[in-house]
Amino acid sequence: VIAKKFIFNDKVAAIVGPTSTGEGMSVKKIVEEAGVPIFMTVGGDPVIMGGNFGPYTYVFKSPQRSSTAVRKLYGYLKAKGLTKVALFTNSDAFGKDGLGWLEKLAPEFGLTLAAKESFGPSDTDMTAQLTKIRNAAPQAIVVWTIGPVGSIVAKNKAQLGITIPLFQCHGLPDPKYVELAGKASEGDRMPATKLMVWDALPDADPQKQVIAEFVRLYRDVYKHDREFPINTHSGYAWDAIMIVANAMKKAGTDPKALRAAIEQTKGYVGVSGVYNLTPEDHNGLDVDSMVMVQVKNGKFVLAE
Quick one: which of 150, 101, 156, 159 has its CA closest to 121? Predict the structure, then answer.
């Protein structure tokens, strides 16, 4: 309904958002038929996969693909010798997308899936599933979800006394996760954008100064940090807005011309990575745009 209002009533040149994969898939058909570019901040890949998921001529997304995050995470697990893995995924659209990639890419990294369990977006107790996972004796538990339910998984795991390492997905590098999970989050690891550990980046990293300026604006100028502490999602929104704005400077506000200009974005150094968009790739980020982070003393640091 909101997307239709933007397009047909407000006559917008472009849209930024939404933030969830399910919402993104609902909006996708509307913008494709209307011919209005949209830069989503959703985590799931189906919005830009094509094939059975429909065309994505006018759809772009700023967060890394789920497949990119899985590759980053699985590469880390392989390097650490954690090859027997349990998957614990949300039953929503984002979780299903993640599960598909976790299953598909496991053999490529030499990983064995010891268990596969799921939970609902509004579940408040996952001890039954975690007990099954513990009984399968994996070396690592990979959770794929966004929102508060991820913190509940961490707390339930701690309540059961499970000491198997927990790995969350790229949707949860957020101070809110640590706040809600408390001490249960200590040691948890996950793929993330460099934003979460920007001050630890080498000065030669082209993103460091870009992120530093974003943090200054977000925290010190606009004071958003008081209500919404900086997380990966704030960076994704900024990058989407800036890429659209840069394209608009070149192409104006005609939706078709603007779409083409967005698609031609090359070497844009953003908060979340260096974007190189193509007709085939409406995300433009590779695995090197991510780092592995962990919770240490209640803060995110580069993973050991």
Answer: 150
Q: Which residue, 22, 26, 139, is CA-closest to 91? A: 22
pLDDT of residue 149: 98
Cis peptide, bond prior to residue 18, ω within 30 of zero: yes
Q: Where are the chain's structural domains?
A: 66-192+294-302
Structural tokens at position 90: 């949300």
Specify the pLDDT at position 237.
Answer: 98
The closest alpha carbon to 47, from 26, 66, 25, belongs to: 25
Q: What angle do CA 227, 233, 234 make, to 5 degrees?
A: 55
The candidate with the shortest Cα–Cα distance to 262, out of 16, 5, 10, is 16
Res 1 pLDDT > 90 = no
SS3 string, 172-192, reads CCCHHHHHHHHHHHCCCEEEE
| pLDDT per position as a tens digit, 19-44 | 999 999 999 999 999 999 999 999 99
Cβ atoms of 47 and 25 within 8 Å: the answer is yes
Give the CATH number of domain 66-192+294-302. 3.40.50.2300
